[in-house]
User: Fold this.
Amino acid sequence: SPVCWSEVGDVQLTGLELIRETTELIVQIKNRLLAAHSRHKSYADKCLADEEPVIPLDEVKIDDKLHFIEEPVQIMDREVKQLKQSRIPIVKFRWNSKRGPKYNWEREDQMWKKYPHLFDFNKKRTLR
Assistant:
């Protein structure tokens, strides 16, 4: 170990000089270990995951058995997918989820049947 390194040959260290040299080497080793530790800590800090998203309490719905209910909250966008023989209206929904909001495209007619309260009846567009 570098603590006991000393010159080989005619040079003789006295007791105080040996202690001083050994102490300097110990301080140098401690500084190097501290630098290595702080570098590893900075790498670890970069690897930490982001904080969990915060969901407003008014969007959290729980059934009678205290299970989380995942359902669409809002219509974000509308499109029409053109196939060879038909056109399919689709709607992009924002869902409340356990892990924060998520967005999915769904068929408009199917979602209209399940969640009519999300559609504005006065502004419903016929996309066919």
